[in-house]
Amino acid sequence: MSPAAWVLTIGFLLLLALGVPIVFAIGISSVVAMWLLGIDVVMLAQRMVAGTQSFALLAIPGFILAGDLMTAGGLSSHLINVADRLVRHVRGGLGMVSVLSSMFFACLSGSAPATTATVGSIMIPEMEKRGYSRRFATSLATSVGPLGQIIPPSIPFIVWGVIAEQSITRLFLSGVIPGVVDGLAYMVVCYFVAKRLGIPKERRASIKEVIKAAYEAKWALLAPVIILGGIYGGVFTPTEASMIAVAYALIIGLFVYKGLKPSEVLPIVWRSMRTTAVVMFIIAAASAFCWLLAYERVPARLVGLMLSISESKVVILLLLNLMLLLIGAVMDNIAAMIILSSLLIDLGARLGIDPIQLGPIVVINFAVGMETPPLGYSLFVGSAISGLSIEEIARGMLPFFLVDVGMLMLVTFVPPATLWLPKLVLG
Amino acid sequence: MVVLLAVALILCLLIAIFFRYVVGQALSWPEELSMLLFAWLVLLASSLGVREGFHVRLTVIFNRFPPLLRKEMSYSIISLIIAFGAVLFWSGQDLVVRTSGNLSATLGYPLEIINSSAPVCGVLIVIHGLYRLLAIAKGEVEL
Predict the structure, then answer these.
(1) Which among B7, B41, B118 has CB closest to A45?
(2) Domain ranges of chain A
């Protein structure tokens, strides 16, 4: 390999390991590689500005802001109420409430840490009060976070749609079945844990209570119908839908549920824009980095290397999953997705995987990386809410992680799990 | 400033939606204007991230070093970031000079308006980086 290729691979990883922020590890190794290759440095600014110029990416600030506004406006606590009335009487019901409410919340938000924060801050103290260990409650809240990225709308699916040039709507739909299967399997884990701990069942909510909770939550329940219905019906683009979600969250939060005070709006906007900046700056910087990687033919060489390991498609797919899980554990998912995109797309094409199935394989592997140490945003949030150390939460997470691995096998080896729904809805 | 840009961006897209679905007449300017606002929003907010230290990094190995060494490492990392800011400024001003006189596709605004976001971001990274360096020296923050 040429010196520039070494800088882009080993040099980049070294900077990352030493604690340089990811976006600057990307930027600095790109600059050094450009200097080694004698490429005009103007390319850096040019690629960075161009990296922000995609209309579809405007859905990212939209969905982040809408999620933050909905949480502040009280929509999420209404959703948790509905989930509580529906499943609390089953054994392990309170755990299932966490799972179900994060599935509801995932239909409003596209972010894993936001899902963990919203559900965890309410459900962890609640579960602890009823006899669950704090470790179990926190591990559960951390593990359900990735559902926020698997169930649409989803920020990584938007990014993958833009870089792989696939329909974002189709990718959104491909995540629905894996997300629901994953959630149901989590509920089964909750059942067995509650049985072992001997946690008593809760009183069953009457039909009247269910209807009352659902009625009170009607504006929150209507939101995904409008947002996702509009996207799937082909009425809005995802970017437009995200902006409608912002307007909807503002109106409901300020005037209907009144959980949102006018003075809070601008600080929330600033917080969401910080999150957006972190994601988008990585996208912008990675666009220069990827160009250099391709120039040095690094992805093509790695694909050749991977294909030379085995003749069997199954072995290579298993290796691919393992590689993505490991990378997802140590890397930011958006950065990893962009850097590896050309390698993954090339490999997928050579293995004959449908591009729409490749999307969820990549996105869900990296979503699971949100809950795994050392770098997992959901894990950080879980630790911040509960005060438990990362190591302790990670130990409690093992059963949920195994469920996720099972779901990844489903996504990888059973194509209809991801392809059937997009085909049904969009033809 | 960032919040202002964000509000303008959202309004711009909502106006576009209103015209397309309620008035029934699609406007052509909001798409390009919103992407211009977005470029500025991202590059400004990111440079602030250097000052506030909100850019994501891996701390698992970093935290295992002894505190004194960590301080030295923090200085080196911030200096690298400042150097990157300087290169981005240099690269960006070159881009502005080379594309000056060109106009954007639909709105016809001069391309300097969007391309100057890169050198400005570079300068701001340098300034915020120096500020962060001072904060580390005073022992207020670690990196």
Answers:
(1) B118
(2) 40-426
